[in-house]
Write a structure and sequence with these properties.
The protein is an alpha+beta fold and 85 residues long. It has one domain (2-84): 2-Layer Sandwich (YaeB-like fold). It is built from 3 helices and 5 strands, in the order βααββββα.
Length: 85
């Protein structure tokens, strides 16, 4: 699956701690190979982000994305409390 990044995602990614950036890059690579890999806990976040889904980056960090036919665009990343409050 082709993976794209929204400007908002890129800005927030750049502000993350380096170890979280590394883990996010690894998880997004796993996502590109198999979006439903159990490691990612790919799930709907329809209530907070209509039309979107989320994957786990680490214990507290999540990445939000929308899917299109053959691609996914990551639109936001952050801690669970930052994204859902």
């Amino acid at each position: 699956m082709e993976v794209l990044f929204h400007k908002t995602f890129e800005k927030k990614f750049a502000k993350l701690p380096k170890n979280v950036q590394k883990q996010a890059s690894e998880r997004i690579y796993v996502f590109s190979q198999n979006p439903m890999n159990p490691l990612l806990n790919n799930h709907s976040v329809e209530k907070r982000f209509p039309g979107c889904r989320s994957i786990n980056i680490s214990g507290d960090y999540r990445a939000i994305f929308k899917t299109q036919e053959t691609s996914a665009i990551f639109i936001n990343i952050g801690s669970h409390s930052d994204l859902y409050s």
